Sequence to fold (485 residues):
Amino acid sequence: MASRWSSRSTRRRRRGRLTLGRAAAIALALASLAATAAPASRAARYFETIRRNPPLLLAFLTAMPKGGDLHTHLSGSIYAESYLRWAAEDNLCVVTATMTIVGGACDAQEGRAAAAAVIQNAALSSEAIDAMSMRHWEPARNGHDHFFATFAKFGPPSTRLGQMLAEVAARAAAEHVSYLELLVTTDGGLSMQKGAAAGWSDDLPRLRDRLLAAGFADVVSASASRLDQVEARARELMRCATPQADAGCRVTLRYVWQVLRATAPETVFAQMLAGFEIASHDPRVVAVNLVQPEDAPIAVRDFALHMKMLAYLRTRYPRVPLTLHAGELTEGLVPPEALRSHIGDSVRIAGARRIGHGTAVMYEDGAIELLREMAARRVLVEIALSSSDLILGVKGDRHPLRTYLKHGVPIALTTDDAGVSRSTMTLEYRKAVEEQHLGYATLERLARNSIDYSFADADTKKRLRADLDAAFAAFEREQSARHEP
Fold:
């Protein structure tokens, strides 16, 4: 009898599951039918007619509102031409063997040409721009090493943070980007100095106390003072207080504190502590991130330690969010073991609310379960298509962008290092259409994600959302006026 009852009970449960399954399938079908039946916007209809027409697609995407850029390294966002121009203004030199900007006395015969002379020489200028960026880079060669080597070539001009802010803000406005979160370090290296002086201890609470007792408040004040000066200079350059103000004055700027993770543990921890302290005192600094190549030997060796550091600091500063570079890897770049947990550990151990790049997600242990968990937690992935292509050689169907979307993981498009990549936010959107085959409704959702998942305060986010709503409404009217009979 027990056996027969068990069998009947099992059949009933199965019928119940089948009924629920059919109901879910019917609901999904009805939802899809409703979505299909819903009238597409004028912009969406026009987009479908020009998505395979590159010139018209570029014009459309240029004019389209794009919300924010949540992942952009300030130093890597500047085009080489600007660095060379500033070097010439400061009477700096270019080491022509490596095309590196340096200070000191210039002597062309000794291979230290004046930057002003390099700009005037078409061949040298072109060679310098290629060395400082991915322009004319041959895909068959090692893009990874060339990409990261460019940062050492910018030299002294990369300290012109006011000019740099003005350049990226003006360019963002021209592209209909209204919000930027810029990866920066604003303490002049003071936190690293204090970390080196304190030395290492794996007793993290004690190490934190030691650093705080050693005048760590100076790091916070140094950062605030420098940001004040930098922002004032940017506003001056953009003429923000005049009738001739550049449109960049309307772009909202926030900062993500960057930690150089390919350094000694004591300096990494001190930088992390600085980021959490600064973000707790200065509302302009909204999050903490780790930078430098994820595959660097020290970064790989100390990855678990870095997660432990962040997990501890997050308990002391629970209101400071994390966005972490993770999964900016591919097979062959690192041993297989390094591909199996970086994204998962960044989410589960460190508590990251956003992930930068996430290119290697499908190499993670339990990748599908991780995707579902990220979707449930609403962990956004900052997708940089140009960087994944140039650094890792991952593009098109090999990129997991559509896999993230399929599993409900929120994403936003980002530029990462637009100056080095010779890209723009518009070109990232074009890649999303041409290489990832995204439709207009998805592009609009990604633009809205860039505001919804930003780390701006509630009032600022509310304003940015309203501005984006108005921008899309105006864009729709413009498309209607231009393309509807």
User: Anything to note?
Assistant: Confidence is low (pLDDT under 50) at residues 1-38. Residues 75-156 form one domain.
